[in-house]
Amino acid sequence: MELSRLAKGLGGSVIREMFNEALKMEDTISFTVGEPDFTTPRPIIEEACRCWEAGMTHYTPNSGVGELRRAIAEYHQEDLKPDPDSEVMISCGATEAVQMALFTLVDPGDEVILITPAWPNYFGQIAMCGAVIREVPAREENGFIPDPKELRAAITHKTKAVILNSPSNPTGAVIDRDTCQAIAELLAEKGIYVIADEIYSRLVYGEEAYTSITSFPGMMEQTVYISGFSKMFAMTGWRLGYAIAGAEIIKNMTKLHENGASCLPEPSQLAAAYGLRRCLPEIGNMRESYKRRRDLICSLIDETPGLSIKKPEGAFYAFVNAKELCERKGLDSRGLCMDLLRKTGVVTVPGSGFGSCGEGFIRMSYATSDEAIVRGFERIRAYVEGK
Ligand code: PMP
Question: pLDDT tens digits for 322-370?
């Protein structure tokens, strides 16, 4: 008997592929998975333990426990000002929120615009809706910021939504205020939904204040805002994300979520609420560490022949231009990452896994220790110099 075309047609993420390849080896130094190396702040863990001990082991409301929805609404009281009862939904990571948003907004055959290089899961998620991906390249020469003119040119009568991820995984680019405004005006004019994945919005290192697409007049009505606790509080394994949108969208996303993940554990939700209310200073400390590591990795890249970098302004990824090195070694970016792994044990991700315009680049996550970054570059240096 045949399995479904959907299941058979879906590819796995290149990030996981590299991760799995590395598991076969010893003494590797990994720059692959986009997850903080920090453990979740201690008070959040203690709050979850207290809840488990108190017997909170039951099903919870589909849209999430009220305490967490209220904590999220308070956290967003200066910007999005959502109604915690009707405009917030808790999801199984931001991953599920993006999927539910797409299922809610998009029909099979509709087009979804993706600014690429982009997080690989978006490709699979759009495919799961039976929708068609239209890639708009964010070019290195423009600091990986999308050009609103190219966005306009990609819009057709079938375009239903745009996924906007700032700060970006994999490039670390943060969309500046003017570009954000131009994109907002364009999408308002065309009546196109935005899925604004702002999961890295607390991890911004530049001088300029962060601009969210939701801050422009009327935009919130056509936006599903997505964020989560994975990156903000180093809670990747807890699987907690959230969506904020108009009540009708949230109602429909919740129906879909009910039929998929159903609901999330009460202890993790209450612990996340506790984190939002009491642990925000810890985020500042983590951000300072990432900023220091970003500066470290960028200077090491600059010192390495054949590699260069457009300094990322946010998230914790370096999208390294390795075109010269690829050419020298006669390899594409996938071949380069594999060769680097097999010869040095350094694990990176080929840029081609983030969209066709990522070819010639490699992504390195610097959410790892300073020491690992330095040791990794000693090996990369030796590889580049042919030692
Ligand atoms: N969006 C982006 C851009 C990401 O990089 C990631 C995680 N790598 C996610 C969403 C998903 O995060 P979560 O752990 O909350 O599912």
Answer: 999 999 999 999 999 999 999 999 999 999 999 989 999 999 999 999 9
Mutating to test ligand 1, I would choose from 35, 90, 95 the residue with most ligand atoms within 8 A of its C-beta, which is 95
Atom of ligand 1 nearest to the CA of 168: 3
First-to-last CA distance in the chain?
A: 52
Of 126, 231, 316, 349, which is best to mutate to test ligand 1, by the most ligand atoms within 8 angstroms of its C-beta?
Answer: 231
pLDDT digits (tens, 9 = 90+) for 140-189: 999 999 999 999 999 999 999 999 999 999 999 999 999 999 999 999 99
Residue 98: other Cβ atoms inside 10 A: 26
Query: From the CB of 125, is ligand 1 less than 6 Å away?
Result: no
Yes or no: say if 84 and 70 are a contact pair by the CB < 8 Å rule: yes
Closest CA to 272 of 39, 142, 90, 104: 90
Question: Which protein residue's CA is at the shortest distance from atom 5 of ligand 1?
Answer: 169
CA gap 347, 345 in Å, rounded: 6
Q: Which atom of ligand 1 is nearest to the CA of 95?
A: 16
Count the neighbouring beta carbons within 10 Å of the beta carbon of residue 227.
24
Cα torsion for 50, 202, 81, 196, to the nearest 10°? -110
Q: Note the pLDDT tens digit of each residue in 7-20.
A: 998 887 888 888 88
Predicted local confidence at residue 387, as pLDDT: 64
